[in-house]
Every structure is written in structure tokens, then in C-alpha cells.
Amino acid sequence: MEKKLICISCPVGCHLIVASTRDRITVKGNQCKRGEIYGKEEMLSPKRIVTAVVKIRKKEYCYIPVKTEKPLLKKYIKPLLKELYRLEVDLPVKCGTVLIKNFENTGINVLITRSMKN
Amino acid sequence: MLEKKVNAVVIGGGSAGMAAALSIAEKGYQVAIIEREDTLGGILLQCIHNGFGLQEFKQELTGPEYAQRFEDFVHKNRKINIFLETTAVDITQNDNGTRVVNTYSKKHGVILFSADAVVLAMGCRERNRGNIAIAGTRPAGIFTAGLAQRLLNIDGFIPGKKVVIIGSGDIGLIMARRLTWVGTEVLGVVEIQPFPSGLTRNIVQCLNDFSIPLYLNHVVSRIYGKERVTKVRITPITQDGKIDEKKSFQIACDTILLSVGLIPDMELAKNAGVRINHDTNGPYVNADLMTSQEGIFACGNALHVHDIVDYVTEEARRCGSYVHDYIQGGRVKKQGNVIPGANIKYILPNHYVTHRNNRLYCRPMIVKNNAELFIKINKKFVLQKKLRHIQPSEMISIDLEKDVFKNIQKDQNHTLEVSIR
To answer: Looking at beta carbons, which residues of chain A come within 8 Å of B203?
Structure first.
């Protein structure tokens, strides 16, 4: 099977041709190592970094930004967003704090991305 | 009324302002940052997506994380005083030549800052419906993409349920994904040009991932709705640039986002007599990023609209070092002109010097693979550079080592022209 992809690892956006046979995947058109990794992953199990905001408890119109520490398998994105929109956090918070550890056993943590005082 | 004396005033506490202030303060000068909002960080705070800092920090950060790092540096630096919820309203000049920045502060009332140098780092504004003149009614539900981004990511408001995005700028694309993730239906992105104006990676991960249609060579020709937007009419453009009315179609929606470009915020600068560069809509600057008004410098999106924050930081830091040289009393060296040649939309700064290296930023007008960049001084070739891929949404940076100028006669007037083919 052959797939045409555009690498999203950096702004250059290389046009990749990813071909898979029974035992191996080859990537062409990439200009760096990251393109090869992206091409292979996108073929086998596409992942994305997820960013969102989480409500701060007892504060109106006040939200804190969060992100997944590493790219998350696409099929877990919807369940994660649902969980994040349900959550509420208390101030103060610190940038880099783990909000959710090992979401659904994916090995992916969700981090808070901004410090905020009370 | 308060009066404060500092070496430099930086107007704007976003990515440019913070980097410029740090660079000036590291040389031992007293700096005041004037920030309108109640926190430092600027536009980065609403850009909660990742992709920032690959050059500056060699890792991929979100906007708030990038801002947080600089905020922490700024707070640790004792030479920098931060004035939050303070708006600069005017820049004037004392009889002795020092600059005075008039401000209103929520906490202190009027504060007058006098300083040797002023740095304009107030970023840019979004073009809106008036700038692109769309026919139709004036209902609620029409937002610029950046405003919608702020409402959603900082205040937590979801702007609508069914959205059409006009223009394929990066903020619009990022918002397409963000809105989809909060359950809003994004029905399409309409772009007048034959190619998207945002980065390719954003087309892939923000539109293609969610099968959101991108209508290239199309315009929104009418907006309908009385109280709230009810639908839009979309019309294709033929190859010779005419509107193909017969092929129009309509999409029912309750919200429209406009992602149709950014313009440097220059109101304050214009009042101070700063000469405007019509290629960028920002100020005209010399090789030291000083505007036509002595002692007033500019950097970041207030100078020209950048596509990557890492470039803003680099430029602002360099601006800070020029401010330092200026305060120290360094005489302005003779400067040559820099002009845009073939296929260049603009190039900055507008002058260059021969006694040190120069960093130039330019924006191409064309999309091309394996392009070549040519630099001529007084119509003689001095440098040639291969470019793998160019497009208008991606800025090109050029480093000119001072060796390039070895054979230039220093006392003569010279003009440097950059072109692409």
C-alpha cells in the first residue's frame, strides 16, 4: 500500500510517499530523520499532541491551558477532551504540573502549561 | 501623576517586548515594560496549541509555555520594572531630546516615563470585515479569528455551533481544529487565492484530519441574517479573476470567523511622527531597527508580521542590543539602502551597514520549489543562495556576513537589492 502524506514535524512540510509491504515501511521525500519517523507512525498508528483549556473552580470565565506531554493516539483524543471539559482545577497552579497521569493507560500525561496565582 | 526616569521604555509585554527588555537590561540599563493587559505574555497566552520554540529552546512548546519562560526571566531581572494594566497613549520629546511616554495606569493614574530610548513592541491587529468589504447584513456572529481564539481559550466562551471560516491564515486554521474539538461544526474554509495562506502543516493537522473542506479560489460574496448570521453565499473565482456568479452556492451557519491577515499596530507611532513603510504597514527602520524618529525603535509584529515567534525573539533581542549601543552614544554609521527586487513582497530593515553582520527578513510573493535568491549591491552580484521551498506564508531570513562588503567603497552611496527567481 502507498500513501501520500505531508510531514507535520516542522514548518517545512515535506511531501512524503510512504509505502508499506508485509514486513516493512519505507518513507521517501523526507529531508530529515523526523520525517521518516512521522511517515512510519502515521501509517501504523497516527498520533497528535492535544491542547485544550480546563475550567478553574469557583472562578467565572477563567480557564487554564493544558497539553498532552507526548502525541496521543488519535482514537483517544475524543475521550481525553471529554474528560478535560468535565474537570475543574483549583488555583494556584504551576506550569509543568501533571494534571492527569497515564490517561487510560496510554502512558501519556496531561500537563498544565501556565502558572496562575489565586 | 507619577514621573519616572529610566534608560529605556518598552511598549508591550509580549514576546517582542520581553525579549527586547531582557536584552537591554542584561547590559545594565533600567527598563520599564508598559503592558495594557493584567499579565505579561501578549498574544502567546491565547495560542494554546504547540509548535513554538523549536529554534529558541530546541523543543516544541505551547504559546503559554513559551511566554512563561520569558516571564520567569523578566521577573528575575531586577533592572526591569513591569507596569501592568498600563496603556501608553502618546510619545513626545523633551527639550533635551529625551523621549517621554505618557501612560494611564489602573493603579497609579497618569505616569510619565522619560527615557533615552523607546521600543515599539505592541504587536499587530487583525484585518476585519471592513478591510475585505463583504456585502450583506450586519448580524451578530461575525468574529475575527484571533478574537474568537481569545474568547475560547482564555475566557471559555464557545463562539457558535456552525462556523464558516473566511481566509486560510494560520489563526483561522488553528481555530478550525480547536472549534472542532469543543464540538462546533466547521463547515469550510474559504480562500480567495489559489493556494492556502497558512502553513502546510496546519492544513494537514487542522483541516485534513477532520475532513474540513478548503475552498481555494472562492470568496464569501454575501452574509445573510437579521439578528444572527443564518447563512453565507460562496462564489468561485474564474482563472482570469472574475466572480463566477452562476456557480455560487450557500452554506447555512450561525458564525463566521475572519482570518484575513494582520497589520502592525502603528497608531501610537504615527502620532509620534514615525514614517510608515507601505510594504509592511509597519515603520520604516534603519539597520539598527530605529524608526525615522531618533531614539524610537521597533521590533516584533509591530515592525512586520512574523509567522514564527522564535524569529520575533531573535529580532527583539537584536533590537535590544542596538538600543544599548544607542544609549551608550554610539554614532550612527553610514548606512546603505535595502530594496525589494523581483518576487519580494517586502524586505527589512530598510538599511544595512558594512561594519558588522546584518540579518535581513523578507517575504516572497510566489510559491516555488528550488528557488534562488540573489543579492546585488549597486547592481553587482554579491551573494546567491538556494532555497528549497518558498511560499508567501513563510518568511525568509538572510544573514549577510560583513565579508560580503569587502569590496564596497565605504564612502559611496550604495543600494542592496534582494530578488528571487
So the answer is: 6
The pTM for the full model equals: 0.93
Strands (E), B239-357: 249-252, 255-258, 262-264, 296-298, 336-340, 344-348, 351-352
Please tell me the distance from the alpha carbon of residue B96 to that of residue B74, in angstroms, as a whole number: 30
Which of A8, A77, A115 is opposite residue B204, by nearest beta carbon? A8
Residue of B45, B154, B202, B206 to mutate when probing chain A, most A C-beta within 10 A = B154
Classify the phi-psi angles of B292: left when phi > 0, otherwise alpha if psi is within -120 to 50, otherwise beta: alpha
Chain A: give the shortest CA distance to residue B257, in Å.
19
Q: Do A114 and B65 touch (CB under 8 A)?
A: yes
pLDDT at B410: 66
Q: What is the pLDDT of residue A27?
A: 93
Query: What pLDDT is recorded for position B195?
Result: 86
Dump pLDDT digits (tens) for A2-61: 888 888 877 677 889 999 888 889 999 998 898 999 999 888 889 999 999 999 998 888
- In chain A, the domains with their CATH numbers are 2-44 (no CATH), 51-112 (3.10.530.10)
Class level of CATH domain B2-125+263-332: alpha beta
User: Is the CB of A61 less than 8 angstroms away from the CB of B157?
Assistant: yes
Q: What is the 3-state secondary structure (H, E, C) of B369-407?
A: EEEEEEEEECCEEEEEEEEEEECCCCCEEEEECHHHHCC
Residues of A in Cβ contact (< 8 Å) with B308: 11
Rounded Cα distance, A96 and B394, in Å:
31
Residue-level pLDDT at A78: 95
Enter the C-alpha cell of residue B52: 513554538
CA distance A21 to chain B (A): 24
Q: Which fold has domain B128-260?
A: FAD/NAD(P)-binding domain (3.50.50)
Query: Looking at the partner chain, which of B153, B204, B394 has a beta carbon nearest the beta carbon of A65?
Result: B153
Interface confidence (ipTM) of the complex? 0.89
Nearest chain A CA: its distance from B193 CA (Å): 20
| Architecture per CATH, B339-420 | Sandwich (2.60)
Which residue, B415, B413, B281, B287, is CA-closest to B361?
Answer: B287
B62–A67: do the CB atoms touch at under 8 Å? yes
Contact check, Cβ <8 Å, B50/A67 = yes
Indicate the length of chain A as a whole number: 118
